[in-house]
Amino acid sequence: MDCTATRLPYKQTGYYSKIITDYLDQSASIKPFYKHPVSLDGITSAIRSRKEFLTNRQVLVEVLKKQYSSIKMTAKVTENIELLLKDQCFTITTAHQPAIFTGTLYFIYKILHTIKLSEYLSQALPGNHFVPVFYMGSEDADLEELGKIYLDEQEILWDTRQTGAVGRMKTKGLEMILNRIEGEYSVQPHGSELIKLLKDCYLNSEDIQTATFKLIDALFAEYGVVVLIPDNRDLKKLMVPIFEDELFHEKSATILDEPLKQLEREYKVQAHPREINLFYLKDDLRGRIERSGDQFIIHDSKIVFSESAMREELKLYPERFSPNVILRGLFQETILPNLAFIGGGGELAYWLELKALFEYYHVPYPVLILRNSFLIVESRWKEKLSRAGIGLEEIFKPAEELVNELVRKESSNQLSLANEINGAEEYYKHLKTLSGSIDPTLTQHVEALQSKALKPLRELEKKFLKAEKRKFEEQERQIAQIRSSLFPLNNLQERIENFIPYYARLGKSFIDLIYRNSSSLEQEFCILEEC
């Protein structure tokens, strides 16, 4: 698939929050909440900070080798894992939960972004090594979000009654979805290849995190992507001092109280800390840890610990403690020699809340990079856009606005009453000056008359447009169809659609297409238009 790429500012799409657009613009109001700019200087600054922090590389590499022992590793992945033992080797990390069949397209996009940035930095900063890492959030329990995909805008749910961490769930029941995928996509050029891959990953794996691990490796191992499953005893042992601080001193809420108050003056806070920001994991339970007097209660269970029993539990079973969103980043940056975190708008929004926490524990705070975003415009929609007279940079506008612009552009009738409204405004301006010279209190009366007079004119203008739009009903239907296809469920394509239809049609060339058009440090939205 050959494409032309058009890039535009994220703000222009209208799909990103103020905190993110201000971060991209490096606005003064957001600068206190991050450490390094998104630039080569920012990366070199992060390297200096990282070199001052002792990362337990030996434990990390041992864990990775165990995780990879069940599959045949590529030479590139093997090399990258060994490189992690070197002090001059750093990671570029993205993270995501193990959504079934990758969930949405941006799952693929963020991984390819880590690859592209790692390769760029290897050239720009010789003497260092940069390894792309996928950090799997397998302890997330949000099955409602992670247990579904959309195909042709239809929601397909995984029918399971399992509870607890999604990554630990058995893959039973997914064969039903795989049968449906096979029925719909096996006729595509690469459909059979894709079905074989998905069946191998999901039906020959004991749990979701293993299946996701195998799928990511199959798609990205040739690029050297290293997948880390942090739900691991040896890795969590490295966090015991911080977990202990959280359980017995409730540090996070105290540390973040003032920074969040400052942030709330300008922005919506994404995640508020709880008194204890840890879950308890055991078997199919992932329960929130709450304190009541001298006891620790596991929410949605009958498990209760005394203070001494909780200390013993943490000491003996650190793997049973799971950080929530407030502590997850701290865990990630403690166990990885990381420089940059690549995430979506929601992810970066909560990372911007956490800088004070990193400073308190003297853990290096990474460069925060908004992941690459794409809108794929296939040839059939490209032709329809052309016929409708809509340019690529206009397609993010709401359908009604696009129709109104089309009507105004192509109509032979006068639809705007701007001149008449301006004339009326000038007339009442003159009346206000005249009345004010006689009695200043009369200006309020004139303003009321102005409002009463202009309202019907503006309503009449709307009626002109509405009447003229009836002549453009076919174009209106086309625009609605285009918008519905390119923005499924009125959202960005990448937040709804799955990679399956694209891979079934294009195979690995789809991955290559996104790879070739992925940026490294440039922060722009990319429209890929099929040639």
Task: Describe this protein with a few key phrases.
alpha/beta; five-stranded parallel sheet; five-stranded antiparallel sheet; 15 strands; 15% strand; globular
Overall shape: it is globular
- The low-confidence runs, each spanning 5 or more residues with pLDDT under 50, are none
Query: Order of strands across the biggest sheet?
Result: 6-3-2-12-13
| Most strands sheet | 5 strands, parallel
Whole-number tally of structural domains: 2
Q: Radius of gyration, Cα only, in angstroms?
A: 28 Å
* Alpha plus pi helix count: 24
How confident is the prediction overall: mean pLDDT? 92
Portion in helices? 40-55%
Helix and strand content put the structural class at: alpha/beta
Quaternary class: single chain
Indicate the proportion of strand residues: 5-15%
Per DSSP E runs of 2 or more residues, the count of β-strands stands at 15
**What's the end-to-end separation, in Å?**
8 Å
